[in-house]
Amino acid sequence: MQKAINKVLVANRGVPAVRVMHTCIDRKIQTTAVYSTPDRLAHHVAVADSAVHIGEAPPGESYLNMDRIINAALKSKADAVHPGWGFLAENDEFARRVQAAGLTWIGPEPDVIRDMGDKIKAKEIVEKVNVPTIPGISKVDTVDDITRWLREKDVAYPIIIKASAGGGGKGMVKVEAEDELVRALAQVRSEAQKSFGNNKVLVEKYIERGRHIEVQVVADKFGNVVHLYERECTLQRRNQKIIEEAPSPSLSEELRQEICGMAVALMKQIGYSTAGTVEFLFDSATQKYYFLEVNTRLQVEHGITELITGLDIVGIMLDVAMGKKLPFTQHDIRPNRWAMEARLNAEDPRTFSPSFGRISRLHEPHGPGVRISSGVYEGADIPSYYDSLIMLVMSAGADRADAIRVMDRSLSRNLRVEGVKTLAPLLLSIIRHPAFIAGEFSTRFIEENMRDLVATFVEVDHEDEALKVARFVAEISALGPQTWM
Amino acid sequence: MTHNIFVRPGMSPREITKAVRELPGVCLTSTGMRDAGQSDYKNRLRHHDLAALAPFYNEMGLFSAECHGGARWHVGIMSRRESPFAELRSLREKMPNVLLQTLVREASLWGYRPYPRNVIEYVVSAVDIDVWRCFSFLNDIRNMRVVADVIMRRGKLFAPTLSFTQATWASDEYYLSLVREIVALCGGIEEIILVIKDMAGVGSPKRIANLVDSIKSAYPELVVQYHRHTTDGLALPALLAAARSGAQIVDVEEDSLTRFYGQPPVLSVQAYLEESGIPVHLNRAVAEEAVQKVREWISQYEWAESPFKGFDHGVLAHRMPGGAFPSSFEQAQQGGFLHLMPAILTVMSFYNQLIHYFDVTPGSQITWTTCSGMVNKYAKEKGEVGVRHLIALLKGFIEKGQNFSALEEAEQKELLRLFANAPGDFKNLLLGRYGKLPMGWPAEWVYRSAFGNEWGQALQSREAASPLDLLEDEDLAAARSVLGAEIGRHPSEEEFILYLMHPKDTVEYVEFKERFGEAPYVLPTKVWREGLKKPGDKVEFEIEGKPFCIELVSIGGEHEGLIHVVMRVNNKTRVYTVRTPRVKKTETRMAKGEKDVPSPINGTVWRLGNPKRGQLKVGDIVSKGEEIANIEAMKMETTVVAPYDAQISEIVFKLNDIVQEGQILFILERSKD
Predict the structure, then answer these.
(1) Are both A201 and A306 inside the same structural domain?
(2) 10 Å Cβ neighbour count for A158?
(3) Catalytic site residue from A19, A231, A237, A297
């Protein structure tokens, strides 16, 4: 049964909120933004057609507050809710309550979210369809449970402790030796409780120098499941992806088809609908891959898949939510570009410590082959309460070298952010690193190469230079001759 | 009068000296771009203005342009925020015909302490200069060896320099012995020019004539250059005397730049020497244009001029060099003791009879700090009477032949306290750390006075060898990484060299450069110093030929220590928030020592202690590796652990405070065991 969507409340902020709104604007669908007090003047509020204040800064009082968000949807006469990514995007209770309020939930069915969100349960389901999984245990109460498992299954360090309900790199700690166990377990439990409201954890063998490959899948409510090929998301720091690309430079064509097929089979098995991602860990040394998790939401890096396929994944999510069939079959999907994404976080590129404050100058990259997905504007404040992502810089070209060239231009000559620190210098030195250019890297690339990566990477730009001169003129005009002169 | 370009960069030292010898009469070094500005304007003349002279210099037929070295390097990074390397690149481009000349100290180069051999080699090899005027304030020729080796190997012109003063002990024989040492060091006279550096401007015409005569009689083919300041008012006749005795190069500056302590005026020198029958190699018409050019900008530097105006024939007694004059007066002004200057100059005239060396960097600084310190101490303790007493004491002692044992006991006691508070550099001088003194070590009582009870050991540790042979090589890789850590990135080669000379000031300079970029080079002096005044005031400049325009819209009033300045930068309106020195400082204590536990990141301290022990308080014992706090930022937790077994002596935050990276969280007392 088809139903119309006339107004979408986007239950998010920043980059994801703006991204979803752009497609809504394309479709002439109205949008509602929600915002917390420090986000009064945020970019996503300005982009939306209407906005509702939902509470104070702490996420629990605003962006994680289901009642207020659903009330906001009803109050602003929205008839659907898109959760973006992060916050409530993988919260089955929220999905259920949205539906119970008579609103359309733009996402997978709540039960699917619940099953896949519980990593332990997901692993059980996955094992049934013969997708390989990493050795691990799911019932962990004490440190002794872990040490016993290590002993009985003869598993060696390192291992990784993960929040069972986690995702997006949060609530994960790698443990190298036994003496770190107590603190690591306590930390994951605490972060899990804080971020996901559930302190269950699981433990797995940590695959060294693994590569992170995921398959984008879209499905309708009629059992049609189509994959949009894979993305490589190996480059991470602190388990958070910072550079992604599509296709993966590390897969043979045969393996690519196998993994993508595996993802489709799995999604069919669980009765998935709308957009979702199956994540794998790929050990390039042994050419083995292991199932990691299913992300039951739109992902940050979906844009590069859009760039190589020409599709609009948010648009597909809207169509599926309206009850439409997928307008294409697997055979129609023919990627013909190489695309790359760099996550511009407001962080110190050396220490990764968050940098908040006001963006005093912003110059977004332009030119052929560039796509920008921004959550900020010049003058925007970056509050300390939320994720540090401020902009996604994407590039596309005929092949990988092309995409890297466009990314280099975007980061070095076009992009300027002042007032807060960003990862831009680090991102630039990564894409210029010979190992990255050769496509040879693992999830440990950044920790292993950090020393090389923090070299100087400033490129001269005359406007930058003129603005430095102007700052000097401003200071002297205000303060007069200086004693050091 | 000839005025063609007779020497140019790329010529070998032998070709250059030959070209000078073959000229009839004399040729000129212009100090307009270095010493002139140092002597009367405290080195504040900016490259932006001096570079305007370069096109004229390029056509003037100069022997060389002294445009580098001395204190221009240090004041450049400290006060003008200019790089000596950038300046050289710019001048090379603007005056390709001209030999660029530096003034370098033999062991302390462009800094103030003797450097190890490897530092000297490293730095000297990296600087693009044609003529290396190298002096020693002790005339310790041994110390010139490393610079001479590197320069002559590089095929550049080495110009060994005699520090000159007029005193009974500074005889022709003394100077000749130095020239012999220099000639031996340089393997003859063919590839060098010998410079007589009269840095205070004290050489009487007769004295200079005799000196040049005796050198030229001993070495008729040696090219001799006379460098002189105008302080005593007798520069022109002294230059004529030098030229008549065979000096073939003399130093001059633009007439419009000459004040009182710099070099003599170029046009006057040319006219006076030619009238006296000595041809001067100079394109006078172009020199006149250069003199005129200076008038366009020199009035912007009145603030930098020495407050002590007019010639000073008293320089013969106190011997303060031209280069030190304005900066000494500046220090006296800033220190609030300008009124003591006459007394300090008098004390200097006695001091230089007690300890013999040459008042030029770093010696002039040692003299200045020692004497000004002494006078200030007397003034502070006993007022004007005390200062008069000090002068009488020294005067009497010197007039009676410096016979220490003949003094009354009270006077002896006083002299034995005279140098008790002398600066460390004075003590290093006595210990031979700079080299040997030209007339031998000072009297024993000076050591007793400077070192007190330890004077015996001091004498024991006094070194007769050259500092070049005493100092161990510096670990350059380590120094480079220290600088890298200070500025947070790999330093460039030029930054590293600046750092080797002036560590602290270079770090500040690099910070300035990162913040304000090309401002020191592109802004006209008025705007550089005072900014834009009225709405609508504009400054225009170019970067790589691209025009930029900054227009002032308004300057707001001060509010809570902040001023907002609105400007149009290439027509785009921008608001700048400027912190005034009165800005309210919310004091954040940053971790420094081992006792301070810093926050690892920026974030919120959401837990004090750990779940097992609960909240910690002052006095609690914590063990190494134990979590003592937890910081959250953007939903990520970072633990703070005790770095060693300790007791908490202070907790420097409140729960849920937002803290900065590096801010102190705890102060610990290490457990004893």
Answers:
(1) no
(2) 13
(3) A297
Lowest mean per-residue pLDDT among A263-277, B92-106, B193-207, B639-653: B639-653
Residues B62 and B196 in one domain: yes
- Are A197 and A229 contained in the same domain? no
Nearest by CB to A480, which of B490, B530, B541? B530
Considering the domain architecture, whether residues A145 and A252 belong to the same structural domain is answered as no
Reference B124, options B161, B181, B73, B180; nearest CA is B73
- Per the prediction, chain B carries an average pLDDT of 93
pTM of the full predicted structure?
0.78
Query: Would strands B572-579 and B562-569 be described as parallel, antiparallel, or unpaired?
Result: antiparallel
From chain A, the residues in CB contact with B548 under 8 A are 462, 466, 469
**In CATH, what number is assigned to the domain containing residue A86?**
3.40.50.20
Strand ranges (DSSP E) for B556-626?
A: 562-569, 572-579, 596-598, 603-608, 621-622
Domain co-membership, A306 together with A192: no
CA A189 to chain B, closest CA, distance in angstroms equals: 11
Statement to judge: residues A229 and A352 lie in one domain: yes
HSE-CB at A46 with a 13 A cutoff on CA atoms is 11
Q: How confident is the model at residue B101, as a pLDDT?
A: 98
Which of B79, B519, B658 lies nearest to residue A469, judging by beta carbons? B519
Q: For residue range A183-215, list pLDDT tens digits in order.
A: 999 888 888 887 777 888 889 888 877 899 999
In a domain, A118, yes or no: no
A153/B contact by beta carbon, under 8 A: no
The continuous run of DSSP H or E covering A228 comes out as strand A225-237
Residues in contact with A52: Cβ distance below 8 Å, sequence separation at least 6, in sequence order: A32, A33, A34, A35, A72, A75, A76
Q: Whole domain around residue A247: which residue ranges? A: 211-462
pLDDT at A169 over 70: no
A297 is catalytic: yes
Residues contacting B285, CB < 8 A, separation 6+: none
Choose one of B247, B276, B301: the last residue of a domain: B301
Does a structural domain hold residue A409? yes
Q: Kindly determine whether residue A238 and residue B636, on different chains, have CB atoms separated by under 8 Å.
A: yes
Domain count within chain B: 4
Q: Is residue A59 very low, low, confident or very high in pLDDT (cuts 50, 70, 90)?
A: very high
B84 and B162 within one domain: yes
Chain B: closest CA distance from residue A136 (Å): 24
Between β-strands B603-608 and B596-598, what pairing exists: parallel, antiparallel or unpaired?
unpaired
Q: Which of residues 456-475 of A touch B (CB under 8 A)?
A: 456, 462-475
C-alpha distance from B76 to closest chain A C-alpha (Å): 10
Q: Which of B522, B581, B637 sits opposite A187 (nearest CB)?
A: B637
B140-165 pLDDT, tens digit each: 999 999 999 999 999 999 999 999 99
For the segment B247-258, the average pLDDT, to the nearest whole number, is: 97
Tally of domains within chain A:
3
Inter-chain CB proximity B576 and A465 less than 8 Å:
no
- Say whether both B253 and B322 belong to one domain: no
Indicate whether B579 and B600 sit together in one domain: no
Q: Give the range of the structural domain holding residue B382, as residue numbers without chain letter.
A: 318-470
Quote the minimal CA–CA distance from A478 to chain B in Å. Answer: 7
Give the torsion through C-alpha atoms of B606, B607, B608, B614, to 10 deg: 150
Question: Please, which pLDDT band fits residue A163 given cuts at 50, 70 and 90?
Answer: confident
Using the 3D structure, point to which of B269, B301, B333 is the last residue of a domain: B301
A216 and A200 share one domain:
no
Chain A residue closest in CA terms to B568: A470
For chain A positions 189-218, those within 8 Å of chain B (CB to CB) are: 190-191, 194-195
Task: Quote the pLDDT of residue A376.
Answer: 97
Q: Which alpha helices (H) appear in B537-653, and where do they start and end? A: none
Q: Which of A190, A184, A189, A226 is nearest to A206 (CA)?
A: A184
